[in-house]
Amino acid sequence: MKVDKRTAIFFGIFFVIFLMTIGDATAVSAEGTRTRINISDADVRSLDFYGDRIVWADARNEEGQVDNLSFYSNHDENWDIYMYDLSASMETQITSNNSTQSNPAIYDDKIVWQDLRNGNWDIYMYDLSTSAETRITSSNSNQTLPAIYDDKIVWQDDRSGNLDVYMYDLSTSTETQITTNESNQSEPAIYGDKIVWVDEVQIDDAIDPYLSINNNICVYDLATSTETPLSSGLRIWNPSIYKDVVVWEQEDFVGNNEMIVMYNLSTSTGDLIAYERTSSPDIYEDKIVWTQDFWDFRDHVLMYNISTSTETELTAEGVHEAGSGGYPAIYGDRIVWVSHSGIYMFTLDSAGLPVDNRENGTETRITTNGSFQTEPTIYDDKIVWPDARNRENIDQSGYPAGSYDIYMYDLSAHKEIQITNDSSDQVSSDIYGDRIVWYEWHNGNPEVYTYNISTSNKTKIHDDVINNPCIYKDRIVWSINNIYMYNLSTSTEIQISNNTSHQDYPAIYRDNIVWTDSRDGNLDIYMYNLSTSTETQITTNNSIQRVPDIYEDRIVWEDYRNGNWDIYMYNLSTSTETQITTNEFNQGSPSIYGDRIVWVDDRSGRPDIYMYNLSTSEETRITTSGSVWMVAEYDETWGGGHVGPDIYGDRIVWHDSRNGNPDIYMFTLSSAEVPPLDDNYTDEDEGDESGTQPSDNCSSGLMPLDGIQALKEYVEITYRCHVNTKTGLIDLLDTSKCYSEKDENKEAVFMLNSFIHLVENMKLCEQVSADEADYMVRKAKEIIDQIGGN
Fold first, then answer.
1. CA proximity to 486, closest of 554, 437, 553
2. How far is CA 163 from the centre of its chain?
3. Mean pLDDT, consecutive 10-residue segments, the chain of 790 residues?
């Protein structure tokens, strides 16, 4: 199922209508105890947490109305630094003069903050062990946003006319300027020997003034005196560091939404932790906390566990006092935040966090080039997508300007292939068998093309404005207000729908074409059967049903009848409609193959992929990154559109923004879950699915490559099983063969052992006869022995 996204905006809202309709899209609540710390009704800002001590800036001593405090201006109000000791259950006022102290940070017995008592911002420190206050900086310029670790204090400093990062070593009483260039370096954080900050980069040739400044996250290693840039974005701020992991907040490429990004210095890998209306990340050990607005007029405090890839909410649902939070800070198993009525703390239970219902399988990153890859579709062992790696630049909307090309990845050959390579723009691709279809822009109009993978022939089949081409065998369907079909075998085009309403989002399977139709004043799902030339209205609800997909006798779509988006299914054989998802969150962009339906789901507050297995009635979660790449477009008829995951066999593909750009990812369902056998063979098939006596077509005298090929041919030709099971077995053998060809024997043996494991599981489940299983295992072990002896 493909949707035209040529007018899309990068990192768009999950659904455009969500902006007006989304409710409490919250994560699963964590197990633990929530406690109110202080009882002051004054404004509280800038929390920090170390051990049993919490520090913050407090306006309780200000006379009159508190203004918004600017940390870069000399606006003086009577803010003070306070501390609460959890072990003693005691609050202490750290500063008491009539000026402004703010942005405290604490490490061990030392508290640092920025102080306006001298007419400009200075850094001060208070030592709890000696009850002594010390002025750290004495320059007439401004020093702000201090951070402290051990005996080192860092801050941002404007004494050179721009912001630089400085450091003060308490053990040697020496001050060091860390950065010296003429741009701005700001918001430093420190852990051990590593300092991170935001580095401003000027872009001289930017079209839009908003895009004239780019930011990098930089890390400086005090032990080696080396500086390394980690990542870049239009706007980046609020970095935090713990050991080798750095987290920060950044805007997307359009400047519309804020996201939390994590980067591991040890592995040089980045991940998107949270997306849309996020702020104030903090990290301790393997847990990241932040605030997020789910369009319900309150900030939720959320936590992400890196070890378990789970996200939980810490603020209380429906409780005004504890149900909203800002400036979260974490230390150990305790998280604190500011609410409307004071400071709250959440203590995690020792039992840990609830475990999500995850699907077993393997996730694979398909593209790694750092550009834009979008809207993947999959057929058999081939994935195709539009790819902007050859683009010239980013336009003002954040959308790649220049040429998109069609790329393909062959999973069997472990090889990426560029299908198109010219100056036109190729988008909205789909694949079936050896044929790829897309449209590309020439002289302002899209033209539909096909590419035959076997013959490498590219053919133009249509020359007009079209949307959303998709293909099944020799038939291609698309929309131009109405639905059209082109038959590659007969080179003929026919119009499927013919009325004054608007039809879009077609999908085809065998003789049935489905689409979204507006003829009744709302959006419904319609179907046309090519063999009977009959049209059928599938949905009659007075709401919005759109973006259908079809496989065999089942149609799925996203449906808004319940006040949120749900996934529905219609069974053509039984004429029954089924609501697949029933929770109050939003589910959309479904795709179906066999008994499995996949979609994008926002129940955690971020877009992830979920799956429903019709044969087991079980719903499982596929991704936990919350970074499934969504595209939104505005259309005066529909109000919005989107595209989600695609599924074929045991593989699910999608585009994912966890690395700061949309990449293609694939999830392979665990081979341990073998679909039940069914009567899916034609009358020409011989034998029964309970097993046949195998013929010995795999000679033990064959070389390893020949042995793997012979075993593969046995599985393909002789062995009777469910088509998905057969595909899984063949994939393992193909991968082992590929490794063996490259003399990567360890990997080849690993894949053969995986093959053996799958066969043995099938034998235990009585999904293959003992004779067949023993034969395949014996032959695979013989090949392993051969590889080991070479």
1. 437
2. 34
3. 36 27 36 69 83 91 61 66 91 93 96 95 97 95 96 97 96 96 93 94 52 77 92 79 93 66 89 82 94 77 87 67 75 87 79 56 86 89 89 47 80 89 75 90 76 91 76 91 91 89 91 92 93 95 92 95 93 96 89 95 82 92 79 36 78 87 88 35 32 37 73 73 68 84 83 84 70 86 81
